[in-house]
Every structure is written in C-alpha cells, then in structure tokens.
Amino acid sequence: xxxxxxxxxxxxxxxxxxxxxxxxxxxxxxxxxxxxxxxxxxxxxxxxxxxxxxxxxxxxxxxxxxxxxxxxxxxxxxxxxxxxxxxxxxxxxxxxxxxxxxxxxxxxxxxxxxxxxxxxxxxxxxxxxxxxxxxxxxxxxxxxxxxxxxxxxxxxxxxxxxxxxxxx
Length: 168
Known about the structure:
Blueprint: H1 6-9, E1 11-16, H2 30-49, E2 52-63, E3 71-82, E4 86-97, E5 103-116, H3 133-167
Antiparallel strand pairs: 1-3, 2-5, 3-4, 4-5
C-alpha cells in the first residue's frame, strides 16, 4: 500500500442551513452540524483507504460561533493520523452569511474512522506521509490522542468483561 499525504484526501462539503436544521430561534442544531462533520470525516477516510469506513470516536467538538438559518455551512476535512486500520480526521467548520459575505470559523472536531473489509472487519490502510512541519505537528498531537483512546478503549473492554463475569 502506497502512503498518502493529507493533501491527497483533503475534502470539503457545504450546505445552506434551512428551517428544519434549526430551533425556533433560528440557531442550527448541534446535531445537524455533527452529522455533517461525520459525513466529511467519512469522505476523507474513504478517499484515504478506498474502503467502507465507520465512525469509531468523536474525540471532541468545539462550537465557537453560532450558525443560523440561511448560513452556508462548510466543512473542511483532512487526515491528521493513521494507525493500522484507524484514521483520525480533523474537521474545521465555517459559517458564511451569504447576504453579507462574512465567513466565521464556527468550530472544530476530531473524528476517528475505521476502515472495514468486505466482511465488516477492520482492515489495514495506507500510512500517512507527513512532509510539512504543520503536518508533523498535527500527526504528533493526533498520535497522543490515539494512545489515550487506545488506553480508554482497553479499559472499557476490561470493565465490560468484568461486568459479564458478574452477571454469569
């Protein structure tokens, strides 16, 4: 498998926010934004792996600027880190007021996706080739999150096993 750079799988999507996307005050639901974040993360991961990919984790999401009905919501996704079958995608969220032309940074999220084979099992993916200093910084920060997630998941699996033993 040939390595890929973050630039090779970078993607973006955008959509105008409509009344069904928002509450009665016109503020777009966080869930609407999360769905689009999940969508762009899936696109980036699929472009990188050329496999079916599923969401394993949304590490964090920070909403910084409110999004309203009529705004053009744009998601920009890029690969931060690649493990064996998992990939961390960084997503930036922008809201543009189409009438005024203002573009505001609305938020950021980190999503872990896992590539699956035809039987639904995790499958190896191409490694990430990081050349620029920015890519290296993002990769190293993502690697730390990867290690923390791995410990957390391992701990949860151990707890689950202990709970099952108590039930028996």
